[in-house]
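Appendix B. Extra example for self-study. Work through it before the problem class; the solution is given directly after the inputs so you can check yourself.
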Amino acid sequence: MNVARSKKWKEIIAKLLMWMAMLIVFGFVFSVIWTIFSKGCRVMSWDMITKLPGGGFYIGKEGGLLNAIVGSLYIVGASTVLGLIISIPVVFFMNIYLKKDSKLAYVARLAFDVLFGVPSIVYGAFGFTVMIFFGLRTSLLGGIIVITLLIIPIFIRTMDEATRNFPRDILEASFALGATRWETLKVVLRQIAPGIATATLLSIGRAIGDAASVMFTAGYTDSIPTSLSQPAATLPLAVFFQLSSPIAEVVDRAYAAALILTVIVLLLSITGRFITNKFSKNKV
Amino acid sequence: MRNKTRIVKDKLAQGIMLTITVLAILLVAVIAVGLYLKSKPVLEESSLWTLLFSSEWRPMKGAFGFLPFIMGTVWVTLLSILIALPISLLTAIYLTEYAQPMVRKFVFPALDILAALPSVIYGVWGVLVIVPFISRHLAPHFVDFSTGYTVLAAGIVLGVMVIPLLVSLFIEIFSAVPTDLREASLALGATRWQTAKKVVLRKTVSGIIASTVLAVSRALGETIAVLMVCGCVIGIPKGVLDACYPIPALIANNYGEMLSMPFYESALMFAALILFVIVLLFNLFSRIILYRLEKSEM
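Solution. Structure tokens for the complete assembly:
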């Protein structure tokens, strides 16, 4: 009788603790989102997203964040395209050209997992040394290169996850019809399209929010870069540099930049979840 | 003839893909070698022992003791894991062992949001919420004065950042435990909690350890959020209410001036190398264990 009772009590306490843990998680989510939105909405205006910083911007005068928004879009756009071009062949190679228990595929997966775990500050430091080696200064190009390196492992691992469960039968059906492996890619590509889309959204989310790597390599500027060799501003750095300012108006701009960044990232995350849910239902 | 071109195309594609794959793998080695070559000058100047275990940091005089920064990193990382581990474990157990699909529908998006938010946003949150909370409400109970920019603030912010990673890894591991085992335990009269504790957790110990190591390595390298709340005071922290200065923050804070001083750049690259090597080892360790688990379930 006593044993049964203590069993019951333990169950209840465990359940309470778990509920508490989940409440804490929700509390954190709510607190972060509330902080960013309540601070950001107050200072958000049309000028913020359509104007460049004017003269005297950093002592509280007129201007917006257009430089950071455009800079981020340039870097993220270019590196996403580059990342896709590099990672799609790798994923195909690992999954279709190599056998399932291939040593190379194992080493490759391990390497990309390790690269995935490498902190962005290390990518930044490494990118910086490479840039010095090639005689580059902080520039749009430097930012694009480093962000591309940063997102390649994310691309590869996420797409690989989607391709790995690819039904072997479909491959064999295609081979049986006489198609080469290269031609079979068309079949595979169509099947894993949602996986590629999710991977792209994830990578964009990571690329747009990363500050530590672009700090060294893309620099910061008040104007929109017109060539690859000019420095480019980015949204995370706009938050970081302006938040510590003693002038209230400048700090407000940091809040606005944080709000823009958060909204972009949330939209990407929601879309990603939507795609996963929608396409995992009617998968072969 | 047509078949020949098709086969050539296939072989050509194979060659190109192989090259790209190998190059991408080699990136690991290239980063290591690049950072090593850059940190060579400082390694030749002072011994590895001095670099790692001396706490004298005077870049102007060429004295680079990384101990304060290493200790700062250790404090912050351990604290963050201490905060994140129980929360993530309990959440993951609830989600896999108890929760109705309805509950998952609410919790997963919340975790998605936590995982998606960039480091700098957590930094802003830390500066606006955690730091004032510590300096106004928590610290006055223990010390006379604290700015709030402390090990504790950095630990909390980092802890929140690694929760989604830990929960998703745990859920994956727990879901791999066969339902039969759970049912056997329940059939013997065990409660759900007993089953979770004595069957699921016991069966997945190695996976939990591997996931935790992975989370540690993620926390080690976090830069911007920590930089914004850690205080950046050089010195070995003596408690959670001291300021600290972890390695990533050191690198990020000094990148602008490092070119003007001899050995300074080299020393910072050495710091990046330390981070890289630790993260590399931790990742290899945990990934290999996780791969093995994945394989054994198949």
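Self-check: Residues 88 and 167 of chain B are 5 Å apart (CA to CA). If your reasoning did not lead you there, revisit section 3.
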